[in-house]
Design a protein that fits this description.
This protein is of the alpha/beta class. The protein is 37% helix and 21% strand. It has a single domain, classed as Spore Coat Polysaccharide Biosynthesis Protein SpsA, Chain A, CATH 3.90.550.10. It contains seven helices and ten strands. It has a four-stranded mixed β-sheet, sandwiched between helices. It is globular.
Length: 226
Amino acid sequence: MGRTAPEKAGTSRKQFMLLAGSPILLHTIRKFAGSSAVKEIIVALRAEDLEWARGLLAKETFGKPVRLVEGGDSRQHSVENALATLAADTELVAVHDAVRPFIEHAVLEKVFAEAAETGAAIVGIVPVDTVKQVHRNKIRQTIPRERLILAQTPQVFRFDLLKQAFAQAREDGFAGTDESSLVERLDQVEVSVIPGSDRNIKITRQSDMDLAKLFLAEEIKAQVAS
């Protein structure tokens, strides 16, 4: 899995926490670097983290370009900064959470293929729990699970469509919780959903780290077996 890397000092940001000796961010980059669907990787980081990240990436060999860009005050601003650095002839863009290192290559291939055909596709899973709509602490209705998905990443879009969505959001002062919400506002394409996996976790709590260690151990064991 590559050399052991240092944890980013003085930060609690999850992408820099160590998982089997490497920051979570590095595990995520490695997963995308190993996909034939990915041609280039851009990582948006806070200005104060760029120098440390350059040193981290300099010790790795990915087989494809990995670039760093300065992020913004929000996820939306950071993604927009990254989009601004892409070549004009870029066809598809995937946006992915740095703290989701267990995306499967098969899912990557499917979501890219769907976006190439339709213009917009995300990864998502059907919730296993019953979902209630409430007002304060009182239930108003039970929402059928088959009509719901829990959105994950990557979310993949035609480059021109995504740039237009971000420009429109900026003009309207709209802040979305994910990229799909921005594209949906354009009402130009229907966003497809590719079934994801409950292993594609977003590491945000210590309990997630415990699960991540288990998943990584299973991945390593499978690689050794093959």
